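Narrative of activities, Objective 1.

The group set out to show that a structural description can be obtained from nothing but a protein's sequence at a throughput compatible with the screening campaign. Below is one input-output pair from the validation batch, recorded exactly as produced.
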Amino acid sequence: MAETGFAIRKAATADSAVLSGVIAKSARGLSAGYYESDEIEAALRGAFGVDSQLVDDGTYFVATEGDEIVGCGGWSRRRTLFGGDAFSVRDSTPLNPARDAARIRAFFVLPTHARRGIGKAILQCCESEAAAMGFSRFALMATLPGVEFYAALGYVADEPVLHDLGQGRTIRFVPMHKFTKPVEKRDVPVT
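Output recorded for this entry:
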């Protein structure tokens, strides 16, 4: 176990059910006061959720405390910017590190473990791996409670957008981006 009380590891397919629970608890607990409960529940049916492509690509991480998964998040070298497996708008086309921004994706922390550095530790793993693949830019779609977190770590907010959740419901998200110094690309294949 890490000095911080939690450890970071790659997510596995076997983690999916637990991750769904972490995502739901995080969204319901940490989004209260930012979103109405019906917005959160609608978002949990597609906009929030496990993206098995990230797990399969080996770019999704979990934070564990003992045997418990207490947080998760990842990055992607594919076009999809956000959304779980149930999200209808997905594009698995590979990104080009020379011109595209790596996607920072699906960060969720249990409310009981919020503000302990878990999200930051996972984000540092994501940015480091993406940089090793040649990415010097990052893009994400932040939830309202996540905007302050990402801004504190160097991300710049764009104009908020409304995402259609279906059945007449929308949810407000904030696109954000970050530029870093380019690093020498390592020979890591893009699949």
